[in-house]
User: Fold this.
Amino acid sequence: MKIGILSRNSKLYSTRRLAEAIVERGHEVKIIDPLLCYMTIASQRPTIHYRGEELTGFDAIIPRIGASITFFGTAVVRQFEMMNVYCINESVAISRSRDKLRSMQLLSRKGIGLPVTGFAHSTKYTKDLISQVGGTPLVVKLLEGTQGIGVVLAETKKAAESVIEAFRGLKAQMLVQEFIKEAGGADLRCFVIGEKVVAAMMRQGADGEFRSNLHRGGKATLVRLTPEERSTAVRSAKIMGLNVAGVDILRSNHGPVVMEVNSSPGLEGIETATGKDVAGQIIQFIEKQAKPGKTRTRGKG
Assistant:
């Protein structure tokens, strides 16, 4: 098989591991910087070009689209879909998961446990919005933030009002969310491939830090999931339409609640914590699933 990895940096751990796994299993790999792609959009023969050459003959694509290039990155994925190339995560699913508000609305509609979340445009009724999510302490989260950036814990009503007004003053879109104190600054990263959680770790925030992101000094350890946590992770990925996903869950007093569904989950933390060959399992999944025309959306979304 000829498999392409859409990634801006071939030296990143996740990109490197995927490339190694592809070669180890006897396939051909090409790492493609999506921002250097350009496309011809034609009804009879859509094409993608890269560094002056046309990209052809691919059996599958693994999108590793960073949040900052979602718009153009998903356009490249969509073009591959229109060319009948199997994409392990489709463009519509990636866009859906990147929109924090849309993803939470979709998860809530299907009954997935979530922190109580508020969303508003005006600051006129900020006090009522705060009360709707259970009062303070609460979390204010920018819709565009990643890796814990743009996430603020407001411990008092005054602080919450100030943060919300400041973000709105910058024309930023944000969510106001119930703070799950009992989680103790820890969350679960469940790595889903297909309809199975293949690896899981607990991420514990650094001392005095409520965010558990490894990029912010969090520590990762192996964890045993409950059947409910496994089911929640698999259902969440399926609702988003993702074949590969990192589902972040908090343990609350009322069961597992989903914080985020990530369409490009990193491999370094999960492989280090669990000792599992997650990259190899992704390639095994592609071997079973990749067939021409198997893309469900075919670039429709």
